[in-house]
Amino acid sequence: MYTYAFFKTPSTPLQLTEGIAGNLAVIKTDSLSALVEPDLEFEAIEKDDTQLVQAVLTHDRVICDLFWQVTILPLRFGTQFLSHDRLVAHLSENRDKYLEKLNQLEGKAEYRLKLTPIELELLANPETNGSMKGRDYFQAKKQQYQAHIDQKDQQQQEFEQILAEIEQVYPDTKVKPGADGIEKLYLLIDKREEMMLYQRLNEWQNQYPHWELGLGEALPPYHFV
C-alpha cells in the first residue's frame, strides 16, 4: 500500500486530490492517520523512466497539498506497506513517537536558504609591456595572489558569521554543503514568522555582501523528520 505521510487523525474531512495514478484515501486509527494510494501498482511505474519522473513530482505535490491542511510527517518517495493491517500496526506501534514529533512540528514549515558565494573581483595582471620586470614583476604577482587569498578568507569569515547568526535566531537549522561552494541551509520555522524571516534576510544580505542569499517557499519539514 503506497503511503505519502502520517498525521494526527483529523476531526474534519481533508481535501484530497488525485494521486500518482488514482484516488487517495485516509487510513485512520484513534490518534494517527496515513494518506495512501491503495490501488497504485508501484512496481510497474518503476520500470518506466517517464512515469517514474512524473510519479516523483506527483508525490511531492500530494504531500505539499496535505501540508497546507494539517501538520504532517512526510514520507520518502516509494514508501509502501504490505497491507492495510501492516500499516495500522505500524501506526499503533509508533504512536507515541510520531505524536511527539508531530507536536514539535505543529505550525512549522521548512525553508531552504541558499547561500551562493559572490564571484571575487578579478585583479589585473602586473604590466608585462616592459615597464615591470624581474623582481618587481614577481613581487606584484605575489601581492595579487595574496589579495585574492585575503578576499577568500573574508568570504569564509562572512559565511561563518552568517551561519552563527542564523543558528542563534533559528536553532532548528541543518547545513547541506553543495557544489561550487554553494551552501544550503534548511530552517524549521513557525509559519507565522515568515515575514520576520524575510526582514532578517534583507539585513543579512546588506551585512554580508560576499554572499547572495536566496530563500525558498515554505515546504513540508522534509529534513526534520
Describe the protein's architecture and organization:
- The mean pLDDT is 89.
- This protein has helices at residues 42-46, 49-67, 84-93, 95-105, 134-169, 194-207; strands at 2-8, 25-28, 32-37, 72-74, 108-117, 173-177, 183-190, 211-215.
- The strands form two sheets. Strands 2-3-1-4 form a four-stranded antiparallel sheet, sandwiched between helices. The protein has a four-stranded antiparallel sheet with strand order 6-7-5-8, with helices on one face.
- Strand 6 and strand 7 form a beta hairpin.
- The chain is built from six helices and eight strands.
- The longest helix has 36 residues, at 134-169.
- The chain is elongated.
Short descriptors:
Alpha-Beta Plaits; elongated; 2 domains; single chain; 21% strand
Principal-axes geometry comes out as elongated
Q: Can you summarize the main beta sheet?
A: 4 strands, antiparallel
Whole-number tally of structural domains: 2
Give the helix level as a range of percent: 40-55%
Query: Radius of gyration, rounded?
Result: 25 Å
Q: What's the CATH topology name of the largest domain?
A: Alpha-Beta Plaits
Could you say what the CATH architecture of the largest domain is? 2-Layer Sandwich
Q: What order do the strands of the largest sheet run in, or round the barrel if closed?
A: 2-3-1-4
What does the secondary structure layout of this molecule look like, with pairings?
Layout: E1 2-8, E2 25-28, E3 32-37, H1 42-46, H2 49-67, E4 72-74, H3 84-93, H4 95-105, E5 108-117, H5 134-169, E6 173-177, E7 183-190, H6 194-207, E8 211-215
Antiparallel strand pairs: 1-3, 1-4, 2-3, 5-7, 5-8, 6-7
